[in-house]
Amino acid sequence: MKQPDSNFRREARMLATAKKAVWESCDWLSAADIVSHGASDPSANDFLPSEWERAGRIFSIRYHGTDYYPAYGLARNTSVRPHPTMAKVIQTLQGKRNSWGMAFWFASVNSYLGGKRPQDMLEAEQALVVAAENEVAGVTHG
Questions:
Q1: Averaged over 12-18, what is the pLDDT?
Q2: What are the tens digits of pLDDT across the range 30-74?
Q3: Is residue 62 part of a domain?
Q4: Measured CA distances, 15 to 8, 43, 57, 111 (Å)
Q5: Cβ-contact 75, 81 below 8 angstroms
Q6: What is the predicted pLDDT for the residue at 40?
Q7: Residue 77: how many CA atoms within 13 Å on its side-chain side?
């Protein structure tokens, strides 16, 4: 069997390092964590994180065999639900970024956001949507 070349190994290490950095960039919650943090009625379908994800209201990453949702993507008012800005950004990035690609984008500083990370800017909905549109368009920023 042929050994992977050094470029392949280097890229695999870089990807693992990037995933670790994203994992450490915020709190990630399992579906059970979300339910325990604020379900007014955890049996209701509108409270299932997997339903939110299917509806494009939040995304998850699979890490060590479990799906995790970004804590920054949740609005915490009377009960825990996806932040409304998440759906708009996910709709913009969908088809161009897989779940890890979205996680990388949210965790990376962005010049369209004044050098801030999208995950820290959910209240600035319009700026975040414009930054996502520029990401999809392939506009170079720096």
A1: 93
A2: 999 988 876 545 555 567 899 999 999 999 999 989 999 999 999
A3: yes
A4: 11, 37, 26, 23
A5: yes
A6: 47
A7: 5
CA 82 to chain centre: 12
Domain residue limits at 28: 24-137
Pinpoint the alpha helices (H) of 1-142. Answer: 6-24, 31-36, 49-54, 84-93, 99-107, 125-137
**Within a domain: residue 79?**
yes
Inter-residue contact 42 to 35 (CB < 8 Å) = yes
For the question of whether the overall pTM of this predicted structure is more than 0.90, the answer is: no
**The token pair that represents 102 in the structure block:** 């979205």
Any domain includes 58: yes
Q: What is the number of residues in the chain?
A: 142
Map tokens 């996680």 to a residue.
103
Q: At how many degrees (to 10) do helices 99-107 and 84-93 cross?
A: 120
Pair of tokens at residue 17: 């390092």
Diameter of the chain by CA atoms?
57
Number of domains composing the chain: 1
Q: Around Cβ 107, how many Cβ atoms within 10 Å?
A: 20
